[in-house]
Design a protein that fits this description.
Layout (H helix, E strand, L loop, with lengths): L2 H7 L40 H13 L4 E5 L2 H9 L7 E5 L4 H11 L5 E5 L4 H5 L6 E7 L11 H10 L3 E5 L4 H4 L2 H4 L3 E5 L13 E5 L2 H14 L5 H11 L2 H20 L4 E5 L9 H7 L6 E6 L4 H10 L4 E2 L9 E3 L11 H6 L7 E4 L5 H12 L3
Parallel strand pairs: 2-3, 2-4, 4-5, 5-6, 10-11
Antiparallel strand pairs: 1-7, 6-7, 8-9, 9-12, 11-12
Length: 381
């Protein structure tokens, strides 16, 4: 089954009681049992809910995985993976990491005896130098947030196998339309469903997908025990959003390519970070493991002044200054003061998150209008 067909049909069955083609919103907390312990597969909606079950099957199918689980947010999904670890375990992650993930790792789980290493993951040798007998998990983003670095998934798979560790890939920026880490041998895929999967900036949700039965058993145990599950209305909205994921991603990619080329040629721009450029340090890896290059890009301004970035934000009319990404509308963000503000400045700047770095989530508007909006905002520099 091709991707577009899976997006519309995978995990979805007409409602058996009415024939409704859309999965109903099962807005219920509990289910009547025929007798003590005799039920129709559902007991309590924290544990199982038919709307959530349909979404979990759908997302698992899109990632070519066997098991999917949805959570109340992307961070709740990451939290579930971390709870599979034990004191003394070590995690290797990228130094170019979403700020919320970094905060969760360093302020929550470090105090429980889990050690985290943050390294430039685009260089596999730097990762290999940190691996030891306590390495239990390699956590990767690709493309990374916000530097749009590309990490070689097959190489990480080999490294994780060599030390008997799991590899989890945050696939939020790429989506399953552009990249399927499980196909390369990753153990777990994580999504902030809030972003491209939902696609309309109206839901907060996270998801995990795996084909490993042992991991799945733990994933569902923690999901039920911790209770960080999404409600059925949110699950319904994401099911609806996913039906157009393939169409939306095509336009995100087209618009992203046009805007990246415009910015690269602009006199006020120092550098554009977008994996579709042959000059990108890991362009060939992106070309191998992705089907296209996505709608996320970042760029820096010449002079690297915060006031210049702020001046650009104030002049924009179509790009909205806001956190998050992956919606139909175009968003612009300032990682140093927004999504990555919790990371100490010296650590941020080592990974390239400087004061003039601007991140774009390119939406589905007409590309000519988006380019004109950027052009008039950059005129003052």
């Amino acid at each position: 089954m091709k991707f577009g067909t899976k997006a519309i049909h995978a995990g979805i069955e007409p409602d058996p009681s009415t024939g409704a083609i859309m999965t109903p919103i099962y807005q219920t907390s509990t289910y009547v049992q025929e007798d003590a312990g005799v039920h129709k597969g559902y007991q309590y909606s924290r544990t199982q809910n038919p709307t959530r079950d349909a979404l979990q099957k759908n997302i698992a199918a899109l990632e070519n995985g066997a098991h999917g689980a949805c959570f109340g947010s992307g961070l709740a999904a990451i939290d579930c993976v971390m709870k599979m670890l034990n004191p003394g375990d070590e995690v290797i992650s990228t130094n170019d990491l979403y700020g919320g993930s970094y905060r969760l790792f360093t302020t929550i789980f470090e105090k429980y005896g889990i050690k985290f290493h943050f390294v430039e993951m685009s260089d596999i040798e730097k990762i290999s130098a940190i691996v030891n007998k306590n390495t239990r998990l390699i956590w990767a983003e690709t493309p990374t947030n916000p530097m749009i670095n590309i990490i070689d998934i097959p190489s990480l798979v080999k490294l994780a196998d060599s030390c008997n560790a799991w590899l989890c890939v945050d696939n939020t920026f790429a989506t399953p339309y552009l990249q399927n880490p499980l196909d390369f041998g990753a153990d777990i895929v994580m999504h902030s469903v809030t972003k491209y999967l939902g696609g309309h900036s109206d839901v907060i949700m996270g998801a995990l997908v795996t084909s490993n039965d042992c991991i799945a058993k733990e994933m569902y145990r923690i999901q039920n025990s911790s209770g960080a599950v999404p409600g059925p209305l949110d699950c319904f909205l994401v099911l609806r959003g996913i039906k157009t994921l393939h169409l939306r991603m095509q336009r995100h990619c087209e618009n992203g390519a046009e805007i990246a080329s415009f910015l690269q040629a602009h006199s006020a721009v120092e550098k554009v970070y977008w994996p579709g450029f042959e000059s990108h340090s890991n362009h060939l890896i992106a070309k191998h493991q992705m089907r296209d290059y996505g709608g996320m890009l970042s760029f820096t301004l010449k002079g690297n002044k915060l006031k210049d970035a702020q001046a650009v934000f104030r002049r924009l009319k179509l790009f909205s200054l806001a956190e998050s990404l992956g919606g139909v509308e175009s968003l612009i963000g300032h990682p140093a003061t927004m999504t990555h503000a919790t990371i100490p400045k010296e650590i941020r700047e080592k990974s390239g998150i400087v004061d003039s770095l601007i991140r774009l989530s390119v939406g589905l508007e007409d590309s000519e209008d988006l380019i004109q909006d950027l052009r008039q905002a950059l005129e003052i520099l």
